[in-house]
Amino acid sequence: MTMTSLAGIPAKRLAAAADDNLAVHSSWAQEHLPGAHVTRDAGLVVVDSGLPCDTFNFVLRARLDAATAEARVAQAIDHFRRAGRPFSWWVGPADAPENLGDLLRVAGLEAAESEVAMAADLHALPADPAPPRGLEIARVRTPAQLRDFARLLAANWTPPDPHVAQFYEMAAPALLSDDAPLWLYVGYLGDTPVATSELAVGGGVAGLYNISTLPSHRRRGIGRALTLRPLFDARAAGLRLAILQASADGLGLYAQVGFVATGQITEYKPPGEAAP
Q1: pLDDT at 276
Q2: 106: CB partners within 8 A, 6+ apart
Q3: H-assigned helices in 141-220
Q4: CA angle, 15 as apex, 232 and 231 as ends, to 5°?
Q5: pLDDT band at 272, cuts 50/70/90?
Q6: What phi and psi, each to the nearest 5 degrees, are found at residue 106?
Q7: Domain ranges in the chain?
Q8: Angle at CA 190, nearest 5°, toward 188 and 194?
Q9: How far is Cα 28 from Cα 179, in angstroms, rounded to an integer?
Q10: Which PROSITE patterns does this UniProt record tie to the protein (predicted)?
Q11: Which CATH number fits domain 122-264: 3.20.20.20, 1.10.10.60, 3.40.630.30, 1.20.1560.10?
């Protein structure tokens, strides 16, 4: 898929900003965890949360020289093999070298899934619609709200993944701080939490992640509301562009609110580490 420019931002710069944002989403909370190991340099970001859960262990934002790329790939993979923890390696349009995917396959990883990289001009969002009846969207500010957020995310696995709740419990002091660049949201119907979203501020853009609605409450406009609320907050904070990674199921919704495809992102994993 060919990279696309948006709002006058060249395609390569937009892809690089999206990678920087993904790095904030993937590493900021982990940097505040006891036992976590996060390394970043000009060539690579490696995030080891210390938990046996690839939801929080990543390699990303590769800017590797062709001459040393094979060795850097082997070094990053070996870290997780020695630690005995699962991980995923995300490859996007701005990553280098161009044959990075081939190097990962030669090193023993497999392409697990691909998503569409998308971006939107926050000044071209649709008008703020009335939320679905009874829906209240709360920016996470309290430990109880954070537990609701974690429980909803954990429910994306069958059975629910206990490491998700553990991660957010450990990261709570950082995530609940006023200066956290990760803004978490929970949608409630009455007292019942039914949906989540996250906005990461980094790379000069707003990144949307963890948009999730309980299966029993889908197709009611709740996901759209949880998508738009963080975007409006980001625009009010002075940001101009938003980015996200969309599965096939979410493409229609994101296109409706103004997102356009800008490229493709592929997740690589060791054999046997299936996605939830």
Answers
A1: 43
A2: 70
A3: 143-154, 162-175
A4: 5
A5: confident
A6: -60, -35
A7: 11-117+265-269, 122-264
A8: 30
A9: 12
A10: GNAT
A11: 3.40.630.30
Distance, CA of 262 to CA of 67 (rounded, Å): 28
Whether the Cβ atoms of residue 22 and residue 61 lie closer than 8 Å to each other? yes
Residue entry with tokens 């950082």: 174
What residue type is assigned to position 87 of the chain?
A: F
Q: Are 33 and 66 in contact (CB under 8 A)?
A: no
Task: Determine contact, residues 207/199, Cβ cutoff 8 Å.
Answer: yes
Tokens coding 217: 């409450």
Task: Extract long-range pairs of 55-58: CB within 8 Å, 24+ residues apart.
Answer: 55/161, 55/163, 55/164, 55/167, 56/30, 56/163, 56/167, 57/85, 57/86, 57/87, 57/88, 58/26, 58/27, 58/87, 58/88, 58/89, 58/90
Evaluate whether 238 touches 53 at the Cβ level (below 8 Å). no
Token couple for 140: 């996470």
pLDDT at 1: 45
81: helix, coil or strand?
helix
What residues contact residue 176 under an 8 Å CB cut-off, 6+ apart?
140, 141, 142, 143, 146
pLDDT digits (tens, 9 = 90+) for 247-265: 988 899 999 999 999 999 9
Please give the model's pTM, rounded to 2 decimal places: 0.93
Amino acid at 260: V
